[in-house]
Recover the amino acids of this structure.
């Protein structure tokens, strides 16, 4: 399961999330969304620490973050 999901169609490319990411794994895409904005993408999902800084600063609520399940959880 991906840790960082970005709704590219809602992103307006403000870059606030890029500035606050402690792992520097967010960058502007080379592509544009339906509205013509250069949206943000995650370049290294595995390095994400799910700190939620990107989601907190995003004015357009484009981020959905998932914490991975702990190894061995539910194995009786």
């Amino acid at each position: 399961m991906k840790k960082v999901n970005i709704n590219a169609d809602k992103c307006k490319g403000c870059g606030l999330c890029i500035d606050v990411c402690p792992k520097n794994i967010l960058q502007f895409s080379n592509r544009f969304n339906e509205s013509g904005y250069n949206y943000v993408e995650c370049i290294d999902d595995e390095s994400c620490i799910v700190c939620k800084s990107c989601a907190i600063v995003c004015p357009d609520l484009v981020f959905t973050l998932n914490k991975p399940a702990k190894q061995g959880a539910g194995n009786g």
User: Anything to note?
Assistant: The chain has a mean pLDDT of 93. The chain has one domain: 4-65.
